[in-house]
Amino acid sequence: MSELRKDPIVHRWVIMAPERATRPIEVTDLPHLVSSMDDPFAEGRESTTTAELLAFRSADSPANGPGWDVRVLPNKYPALSRDTSLVESTDSLYQSLSGVGAHEVIVECPQNEGNISRLSDENICKILVAYRDRIVDLKRDPQLAHATIFKNCGAQAGASIYHAHSQLLATPYVPSLIEEELAGAKAYQAANGRDIFDDIIARELADGRRVVVDTPQFLAFCTYASRFTYETWIVPRQPESHYEQITAEAIRELASVLKSVLHRLEVALNDPPYNYVLHTAPLQQAYLPHYRWHFEIYPRLTRVAGYEWGSGCYINEVLPEQAAQRLREVSEV
Amino acid sequence: MSELRKDPIVHRWVIMAPERATRPIEVTDLPHLVSSMDDPFAEGRESTTTAELLAFRSADSPANGPGWDVRVLPNKYPALSRDTSLVESTDSLYQSLSGVGAHEVIVECPQNEGNISRLSDENICKILVAYRDRIVDLKRDPQLAHATIFKNCGAQAGASIYHAHSQLLATPYVPSLIEEELAGAKAYQAANGRDIFDDIIARELADGRRVVVDTPQFLAFCTYASRFTYETWIVPRQPESHYEQITAEAIRELASVLKSVLHRLEVALNDPPYNYVLHTAPLQQAYLPHYRWHFEIYPRLTRVAGYEWGSGCYINEVLPEQAAQRLREVSEV
Asked: What is the pLDDT, as a whole number, of residue A108?
């Protein structure tokens, strides 16, 4: 079983998951994973996966068979599990929790396709609905404090399988970076009497140099202090702390913005490996007026090295103004 | 010129260094860099490097010629520079600083050797003295707030050159992770009336399972909540916040502990890529009784992916107790 440990000095959580070291890795030395006949997530191979938690499938198709567009499965090699109860072990120095949580895989299309930007708008909508529905379900478990949804695309971004998929990790703690965002946004509101996400959006629209895609409900832009080259965020224009509150109409618009941004990154950077992460408010908290869910997209072009790991600070060799300009110049799909 | 930008939400510094994108990369696709006839740091090629800031060389050898053991050079592609003055640009949302600082390379031996564990004890002492002497020199510049010394060994750890070298990055800010350590150590002292580093050392010695090397002045151990597989810290047993205060006697002992730990990692993990980072107190602060300088060594065995980047938390597939046992089992050099 996994064990969660908290760093005694900086209070950062680490999931100790020794069982995961046994999982097979499809390809590790290639800069790009490639499509494969031996695709564990392909339609028709449902009998070899774990049993689905959720699937968007044709009305007459039975569970765990063909006929689906998006499927959500328990991770075969989970870092955390709900088959255990939350036990805390704390003394004045070291703190640990039992490995309670959920680790799921969102299989994003039935065919052997690695890049969701090449899927139909309708398919991408179903992915975004699956993210929402899984969070809504997990929220009912009071042991779970937060759900992080993330995608690793490409071997250099940590993917071990080519077929497009994301992961959901629900944890009994709120991750450090989310805690920092919540605290920073709250402090800004207290100091300035305004919402920091409103102020960032207003500034970015007025300035314009870092804007990538601009729609009625969303703004996609390269952030002022990007950690990663070509890092791009997608932020809703209206306050909304919890992603699970998103409407069907907003999902349609978000799907087209996400597709456009990923397409632009793929053209501008020649199919880069990338990660994206959904940042959303803690599951068990009510609406937080100062916080806003958003997607953060990190192309993985340069190796992160000793300075970044050791300092928590970053060196970025492309100004976000230049990155955004390049992304704006790419033609739409 | 570089520009330093602070994230408006989580207050993390990023060095925007567009000029660095022009530097050549020796090897990028190999899992291990290899020794090379075309070694830019080899003895005899001093005329092609930047002019040395410091060198430990034989008494009769002129600067910037052969006859040295350790040389310190300005980085040819610096992320920061001292040839500019500190200009701050701040509004209520975005904060930036001009790219003031120092970026230096410590060339750690004259021959084409990539692993400092294979150097003589005397050579390793000179490296550790060079770290100290450069910090002492940079401390005199009141514009510099902190010096981070770090090593990238192996292409997967971010190195672009095989020849053993470290880097020093002196910044006008104190890095986020150092700020978090300072705050965490201070809060622990306030809450418990004891030094957290004393308590960690006492606990690790009493427990024993995570200890790697144990000498009169230093303890090397795999940390309780290691971020990375086989992460190992070397911590002085007595309080000392600033590395630049280290004595010559302690350097001799530190050199043998560092060599032993790196040798054990290399044998146990088959020459892994790794980073190490010296964490030390801010340059312009007086002695901090609650803080302690230390080395953090991060083997780079698994790819860090979306969860870690997006959450600030980590998944580690090897318990530190198992890692330390394996490292203890390796025979000494």
From this structure: 98
Q: What is the pLDDT of residue A265?
A: 97
Question: How distant is the Cα of B59 from the closest Cα of chain A, in angstroms?
Answer: 34
Q: Residue A17: its chain B contacts at CB < 8 A?
A: 315-317
Q: Please tell me the predicted confidence (pLDDT) of residue A141.
A: 96
Question: In this model, does residue B200 exceed pLDDT 70?
Answer: yes
Tell whether B91 is within 8 A of chain A (Cβ): no
Q: What residues form DSSP beta bridges with A102?
A: A170
Q: Where are the beta strands (DSSP E) in B158-272?
A: 165-171, 211-214, 218-222, 232-236
- The first and second tokens of residue B211, run together, are 């200890």
What is the structure's pLDDT at B28? Answer: 42
Q: Which residues contact B270 (CB under 8 A, 6 or more apart)?
A: none
Per-domain boundaries in chain A: 3-173, 177-329
* Lowest-pLDDT choice from A74-88, B27-41, B256-270: B27-41
> CB contact, 8 Å: A225 with chain B?
yes
pTM of the model: 0.93
Interface with chain B: mutation pick from A9, A20, A150, highest number of B CBs within 10 Å: A9
Query: Is B251 buried (19+), middle (13-18) or exposed (0-12) by CB count in 10 A?
Result: middle
Q: Is B165 a catalytic residue?
A: yes
Residue percentage of chain A with pLDDT more than 90: 80
- Shortest CA distance from A202: residue in chain B: B93
| Mean pLDDT lowest among A148-162, A269-283, B22-36 | B22-36
| Cross-chain CB nearest to B313 (options A14, A20, A276) | A14
Same fold, A3-173 and A177-329: yes
Quick one: DSSP state of residue A21? G
| CATH 3.30.428.10 is right for the domain spanning A3-173 | yes
Chain A and chain B share a number of CB contacts under 8 A equal to: 255
Residue A30 reports pLDDT greater than 60:
no
The catalytic residue positions of A are 165
CATH class of domain segment(s) B177-329: alpha beta
